[in-house]
Each structure stands twice: as C-alpha cells, then as structure tokens.
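Budget justification aside, the reviewers requested a transparent look at the raw inputs and outputs of the sequence design task funded under Objective 1. We therefore reproduce one unedited record. The lines immediately below are the structure tokens for a 416-residue chain.
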C-alpha cells in the first residue's frame, strides 16, 4: 500500500496544474502570514526602509508575471507541437512530464497571485505600517525566486522540444524502468510461463473499464493473497489494452469476498495512455518512433536514426537480469507474465530495419548495435539479439538495390 500511495503521489506531482495549485496556495498563505508577523517588526522601521514602496512593486509584479506566464505557455505549447510533428506523437508524453517547466510556470503563477492578493489586502485595515514591512520582505523573497526561475527558464529553453533533449529524457525514463525490472524480474513475483496452468475454477478479476494497464501493484496483490490464503495469477501485462470486464487476474479459489475482489481490481492502474513507470516497452517504442520518423520520406534523416540506434544498444543491455535477481521472489503468492526478450527488439531494431531497409548506413548501424548487445548479453537476451540481427539482415539484403551495399552488409552482419 505504501508503494501504491507513493506511485500515485509521484504521478500527481508530475501534473502541471497540481504544481500550480500547490505554489498558488503557498503564495496566498504568505500574504496573511506577513500580517501575522507584523507584531515582530520594530515600530518606525517602515519609515526607514520605505515600506510604502511595496505597492508599486506589487503592481509591477502582477502585470509582468501575467505577461511572462502567457508567453511561457505559448512557448511550451509550441515546443509540444514541434516535438509531436518532428519526433512522433508519443514524445508529447515526455514533455507533459517535464517537471522543470512545470515548476517554473508554477512560480510565475504563484508570484502573480501573491502580488494580486497583496495589493488587495494592502487596502484593508489588516495591513498597518509594521505589517507592510513584513510584506515588503516577503516580496523581496518572491522577486529572488522569480529571478532564479527566469534564469532556469532561459537555460531550459535552449533544449526544450529539441531532438537531443527529448531523446535523453525518454532514454532516462526507460532506463529507470529497465533497471527496476532487471533487479526484480516480474516485479518480485513468480514468472507465469506457458508451462504453468491457470486454475480453471478460480475467481476471475475483471477490469473496471477500458484502457491501458499502466501499473500493477504487486505488493497489494500479495497482501490480498495472504489474507485469502491463496494465490493470484495475473493474466495481463503492463502496457496491454483491456476492455471493460476483461480478465486481469484470477485467484486459485472461488472463496473470495467481493471486498477482496474489488481491492484486487484497484491493484491495477488502468488509464487512457501508457506511461514509463513499469512499462519499458513503451519507452523503447517511443525511441523506435523517433528513428522511424527520421527515416520517413518527409524528413529523410538517417543520421538521427543512427543516433537512436546507438542509444538503444546501450539501453537494451540494462534488460539483462542482475545476478541474484532470480532468487526466491518477495511476492511468493503472485504469478506475473515476464517481459519477453523478443519484444524488446520487435519494438526497436526490427521496426528501424524495416523502415530503413534501403539505407545502407542504417542497416550497418543496426548490425553494429546488435553485435554490441550480443557480445555482452546472455541467455534469452543474447538469443533474441541474434534472431533480430538475422531478420534485419534479411530485410537489408532485400531492400538494398546495389550489389556492393549488399556485400558490405553481409560482411558486417552478426553471423559473419
């Protein structure tokens, strides 16, 4: 339950409006706080520091922050559209999670609300000379935050929506989910392989509504299975699209209360879009989108696709299970489908080799990257890399028109 709560909190904090609401609430609270601190200000200090100057400062803040916020929102939406059209529609997801942009916009909106509320309360009997001194001091703090945010914003705008920054963010988020899966395969549950038969008469847990399976809270399922003294077999994977009522999991017994069944449904986060948290295939497919978009006739940029290929070769090596990761799982009452190694290559190199079948530079880069993965991988990942290299070679030999290019690709292939 603790992990589920933390995951939900992280998702909420990544939303733009949540950060704006939090900063706005702090800003609105700071003005009454200045009135409460008025008793701590020595009498006569207002005349010496010119606390009456706070009125024009607040007016300037209100007008300037409104303009800066509007301009910043225009820049943000423009960057989103550019990334959508150039690097693929799903790169928009990573820009929506850009916490740096969210924090900066939240400071701008919070400063605007602080100035507006300060201007209003300054006209009330609440604020005397001593309270105005406290408000003046808080205004200086807000101005310092604005200056820092503007500097951060200028530095951030240099890369906002660019290929390099977008690719780096997708790579970082995907690497986190791959490392988590490598440390704890099946997220701490047993692997539900084809050899394991599902209980025929078990209680089926159906989806509450249609959508993508974003997360599976295995710890919550383990707790429910322990209470019911049974086992739970999860029949869907993170990233799957499910319909209302479709089977998500099943208990090995029918003696399950409706309360426990409802709790089991809540252990599956089902929404309208995929996320990076427990879904490394989503991040890999987004990187595949970026490479395939670069190879489209409208863009025709093989160098960009090769950059993605090189990054993917390092990223896929993170999928190799760590030593000791196959020991007894923590959630010993849960069975979960493992992530097949073949899917890692189907979402990446297979797609890129298909769309770049006629480009010798891309075909050579794919073979070079798969050779690098094969040299360091073991087990299922190694076999999947070799099969992907064979498929890519076949596509390249079919798509390349020149005999010299086909011969170069044959020499560079993984099997040579």
């Amino acid at each position: 339950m603790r992990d589920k709560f933390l995951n939900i909190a992280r998702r909420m904090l990544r939303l733009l409006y949540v950060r704006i609401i939090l900063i706005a609430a702090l800003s609105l609270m700071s003005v009454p706080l200045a009135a409460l601190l008025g008793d701590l200000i020595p009498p006569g200090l207002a005349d010496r520091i010119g606390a009456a100057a706070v009125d024009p400062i607040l007016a300037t803040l209100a007008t300037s922050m409104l303009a800066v916020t509007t301009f910043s929102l225009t820049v943000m939406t423009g960057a989103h559209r550019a990334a959508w059209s150039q690097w693929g529609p799903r790169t928009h997801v990573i820009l929506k999670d850009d916490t740096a942009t969210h924090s900066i916009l939240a400071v701008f909106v919070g400063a605007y609300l602080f100035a507006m509320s300060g201007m209003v309360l300054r006209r009330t009997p609440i604020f005397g000379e001593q309270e105005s001194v406290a408000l003046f001091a808080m205004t200086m703090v807000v101005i310092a935050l604005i200056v820092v945010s503007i500097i951060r914003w200028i530095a951030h705008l240099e890369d906002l929506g660019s290929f390099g920054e977008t690719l780096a963010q997708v790579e970082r988020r995907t690497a986190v989910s791959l490392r988590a899966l490598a440390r704890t395969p099946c997220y701490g549950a047993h692997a539900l392989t084809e050899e394991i038969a599902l209980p025929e008469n078990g209680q089926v847990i159906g989806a509450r509504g249609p959508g993508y399976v974003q997360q599976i809270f295995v710890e919550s399922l383990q707790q429910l299975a322990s209470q019911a003294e049974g086992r739970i077999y999860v029949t869907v994977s993170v990233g799957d699209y499910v319909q209302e009522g479709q089977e998500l999991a099943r208990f090995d017994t029918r003696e399950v209360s409706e309360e426990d069944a409802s709790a089991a449904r809540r252990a599956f986060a089902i929404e309208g879009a995929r996320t990076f948290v427990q879904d490394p295939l989503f991040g890999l497919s987004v990187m595949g989108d970026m490479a395939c978009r670069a190879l489209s006739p409208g863009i025709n940029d093989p160098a960009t696709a090769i950059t993605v290929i090189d990054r993917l070769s390092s990223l896929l090596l993170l999928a190799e299970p760590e030593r000791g990761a196959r020991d007894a799982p923590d959630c010993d009452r849960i069975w979960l489908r493992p992530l097949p190694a073949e899917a890692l290559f189907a979402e990446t190199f297979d797609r890129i080799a298909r769309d770049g079948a006629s480009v010798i530079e891309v075909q050579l880069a794919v073979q070079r990257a798969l050779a690098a993965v094969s040299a360091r991988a073991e087990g299922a990942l190694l076999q999947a890399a070799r099969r992907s290299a064979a498929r890519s070679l076949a596509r390249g030999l079919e798509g390349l028109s020149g005999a010299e290019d086909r011969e170069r690709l044959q020499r560079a292939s993984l099997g040579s």
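The beta strands are 189-191, 204-206, 211-216, 232-234, 241-242, 247-251, 268-271, 331-336. The mean pLDDT is 84. Computational costs for records of this kind are itemized in the attached budget.
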